[in-house]
Amino acid sequence: MTENETPEDRAFRAEVRDWLEANLSGDFAHARGLGGPGREHEAFEERLGWERHMAAAGWTCVGWPKEYGGRAASVEQQVIFNEEYALAGAPARVGHIGENLLGPTIIAFGTDAQRERFLPPIVRVEELWCQGYSEPNAGSDLANVQTRAALTGDGAQWRIDGQKVWTSLAVESDWCFAVCRTEPGSARHSGLSYLLVPMKQDGVDIRPIVQLTGTSEFNEVFFDDARTDAANIVGAPGEGWKIAMATLGFERGVATLGQQVGFRRELQAVIDLARRTGAIDDPLLRDRLTRAWMGLEIMRLNATRTMAGVAAGAPGPESSISKLVWGQWHRDLGELAMDVLGAAGLVADGEPYDLNDWQRLFLFSRSDTIYAGSNEIQRNIIAERVLGLPREPRP
């Protein structure tokens, strides 16, 4: 609790805290602490049940306008909700992509019909979403997207062919928002469109990618004559780049607070581990732990600042700061956890590949500075679009 909270914010904090304490019990008592980076597979059905329980009580999409099923919570109250969620040790969210990425995008750019069709199932956690951006030759260079989409002869549907990769939680998802090239012969940022594609159809093949952690959060997705209704395009044909960048802005702003739920819990666990093992007596490790805490607080303040901009509309390129900061911070935390463990961190808990939480954190966080836009790309965006520096030479 901060000294400058209003009476309304203090009452909201008490309401959130009391509800979590009352409901993370009984059937959901065992859900505390489940999930997180490298552990997305963990107790998925139980976490889905918990999130639907939250939805029934009105605790999903709290920042959305009331007319779309949210609570119209202020920026400060959204911060409070995420802080209390972390303090309660509540499980990692399963509806994150729909609630924090796709939902705000449809609210900002979608049609009334799209809002009516897609927003309520997100609020109720009845439909889960994944993000179809990266491709084998279009990862950080997203403008090189080659997945094609064209309207059928009668104009009733989009026909989609191509491949996406590193698609988080695709196996669990009902829908995908995909950036596709809809204008033949177009290149780079032009000719792209933002389509909403059902995943449960014959034209979609999902192949899990086994990661260093032994789990498969990331997937390859192949579209082979996949179909979606012509109306399932957000914005106009050719506006896909603009819409996609807005979605990334939402991901790097508001959604960062939800992500910090896990970060805060992980940092506290590393601190507790250092106390148990005596590693905290090492002045260098103690300094790194202190810096990690400071970094998380800075991350929270920056996300709050970004959210203030989001409240006025779609976020701008400044949101890249959030991605750059949290990606580096989380990777450093994984390295710090291994250093706190020392030699014990080199030995698996069991055969054939039974990793502990710290080993999973270290291995998974290696990807944090790459996915959702690599550090190099984020620095370019900040330099060129925020600071106004000269553009990097391009071939």
From TrEMBL:
Chain ranges passing through the membrane: none
GO MF entries: flavin adenine dinucleotide binding; oxidoreductase activity, acting on the CH-CH group of donors
Domain called Acyl-CoA dehydrogenase/oxidase N-terminal: residue spans: 6-125
Domain Acyl-CoA dehydrogenase/oxidase C-terminal: 238-387
Keyword tags: FAD, Flavoprotein, Oxidoreductase
SUPFAM superfamilies in alphabetical order: Acyl-CoA dehydrogenase C-terminal domain-like, Acyl-CoA dehydrogenase NM domain-like
Domain Acyl-CoA oxidase/dehydrogenase middle positions: 130-225
Cofactor list: FAD
Protein family per UniProt: Belongs to the acyl-CoA dehydrogenase family.
Single GO cellular component term: plasma membrane
Name this protein carries in UniProt: Acyl-CoA dehydrogenase family protein
